[in-house]
Amino acid sequence: MTDLSMMMKSSANSVVTSLLLYLFTQSVGAAQTEITFAYVGSTEHSAYSGVTLGLKEANLQGQFLGKKYALQAFSSAAELPDKLDDYLVIVAALPAEELMALHETTIQIPVFNLVADDDSLRSACLGNILSIIPSNRMRLDAAAQWLVKHPDSHAAAQAWHADFVKFAARDLNKRYRKIFAKGMDDYAWAGWAAIRMTADTVVREAISNPAVLLHYLKTNLSFDGQKGIDMNFRETGQLRQPLLIVENSKLIGEAPVRGVSSDIDSLGIRECIK
After folding, report:
1. How far apart, in whole angstroms, are the C-alpha atoms of residue 91 and residue 97?
2. Helix or strand or coil: residue 253?
3. Which among 194, 125, 208, 124 is positioned nearest to 159, based on CA atoms?
4. Half-sphere exposure of 216 (CA within 13 A, CB side)
5. Is the dihedral of CA 144, 150, 156, 158 positive or negative?
6. What is the DSSP string of 207-226?
7. How many Cβ atoms from other residues are within 10 Å of residue 235's Cβ?
């Protein structure tokens, strides 16, 4: 083959490659769908920081998968529009009584509880309230297990800790600190987890309807969340999860506590009040 022929062939291949790339880019852009989250609560709360990190990561993934995620923030439930058709989920940094009131107007939309640890919220089993943050009873049970093996300890249980490094937690903590110049706390982790489990489900299951998403989250969710196990929701709406044992701000262990219990359901209320 002459040099001229080779040059012509190479040029033709480049044109075809560029055309295919252009057509692929256009098809992805044309198929791109936008999914909107509603955040309710103070944007000064660390839960909001976690939500924004989750959104940033979801959009990095979504740009290759035809998904775009947006967020609208409201300081209170009263500011939400009467029609909520534009939102796939609501993420809320609200006290329990406001969540209970919000439940009445959002029955078919998943509402993630990021901050309220009230046991009464779990035992009420409100159908669309999904609690990412651990309940008070979960934390007390975890601390009690720790005391069985360490009776002189004054430790408490948390959902997250800025020094947690196992199960890719180190990377998550680094990403959060890089953006916000502070350590990730329980509420920030809860906000991040709510967005990521939603975005992962949307991509994997091609769900765009809030009611369908709610059913899936309550019955089929499997979410790692950088805690080393596949987490899902109890019938109470509480996310099953390991907890971290902390004393004097230092991470010293995990619960369920090895040698005391291996059952994740040993933490917190298991069932609804019938």
Report:
1. 15
2. strand
3. 194
4. 20
5. negative
6. ---HHHHHHHHHHT--B-TT
7. 14
Compute the half-sphere exposure of residue 45: CA atoms within 13 Å on the CB side of its CA.
26
- Please state which CATH number belongs to domain 34-266: 3.40.50.2300
Which tokens in the block code for residue 245?
A: 């044992």
Structure tokens at 202: 């949307």
Distance in angstroms (rounded) separating the CA atoms of residues 154 and 273? 32
The SS3 assignment for 67 reads: strand
Ranges of each domain in the chain: 34-266
**Predicted model pTM:** 0.88
39 SS3 class: strand
CA separation for the pair 96, 98 (Å, rounded)? 5
- pLDDT tens track for 64-111: 888 999 999 999 999 999 889 999 999 999 999 999 999 999 999 999
Work out the average pLDDT over 127-136. 98
Closest Cα partner for 115 from 62, 49, 58? 49
The CA distances from residue 123 to 111, 117, 135, 236, in Å, are 16, 12, 10, 6
For residue 145, the 8-state DSSP code is H
How far is C-alpha 59 from the geometric centre of its chain's CA atoms?
A: 14
Which segments of the chain does DSSP mark as H helices, in order?
3-31, 46-62, 96-105, 119-123, 136-149, 169-180, 186-205, 210-219
Q: What kind and span of H or E run contains 244?
A: strand 243-247
Q: Which residues contact 5 (CB under 8 A, 6 or more apart)?
A: none
Secondary-structure percent of the chain, ordered helix, strand, coil, rounded to 5: 45, 15, 40
